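Practice problem 4.
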């Protein structure tokens, strides 16, 4: 018997990976490197309202609930990062509890694996800074609470992440 069912928003987050950076630490080399080495970098953004760490992605709109989630994620990534090209596995990496500090809202987070293929990052007003964090270091201090736990899970399961990027059913967006 359900005594008090919860109502939660759904947040889609993309662990956007790059195998290597150029000499300018914020520019990713355009590469088709094999994703088997357990290294590389993932994109970290700073939320402009809270100053906390964030990943590309966002919440599903009410009219998107019956659409494929990767479509909603593609919309969010384009809104937040501009016209980049990336490939992703449409199957989630893991699910996590997510507290959206900006709105003080509880959400169910769904994490996805993606690889940046090209384009120039252009942050929206939602984020004021980004950097590439090493896959071989601890969780960046900018992350707090539920996002910190999600990034920790991601880094602990990075072999699963690399396996997902080497799957045969990847989709390239946009």
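Answer key:
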């Amino acid at each position: 018997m359900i005594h008090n069912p919860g109502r939660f928003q759904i947040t889609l987050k993309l662990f956007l990976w790059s195998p290597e950076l150029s000499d300018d630490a914020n520019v990713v080399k355009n590469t088709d490197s094999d994703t088997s080495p357990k290294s590389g970098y993932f994109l970290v953004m700073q939320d402009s309202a809270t100053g906390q760490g964030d990943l590309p992605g966002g919440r599903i709109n009410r009219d998107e609930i019956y659409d494929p989630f990767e479509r909603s994620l593609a919309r969010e990534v384009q809104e937040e990062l501009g016209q980049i090209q990336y490939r992703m596995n449409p199957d989630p990496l893991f699910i996590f509890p997510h507290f959206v500090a900006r709105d003080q809202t509880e959400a169910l987070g769904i994490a996805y694996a993606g690889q940046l293929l090209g384009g120039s990052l252009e942050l929206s007003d939602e984020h004021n800074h980004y950097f590439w964090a090493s896959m071989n270091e601890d969780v960046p201090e900018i992350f707090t609470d539920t996002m910190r736990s999600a990034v920790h899970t991601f880094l602990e399961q990075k072999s699963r992440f690399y396996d997902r990027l080497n799957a045969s059913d990847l989709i390239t967006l946009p």
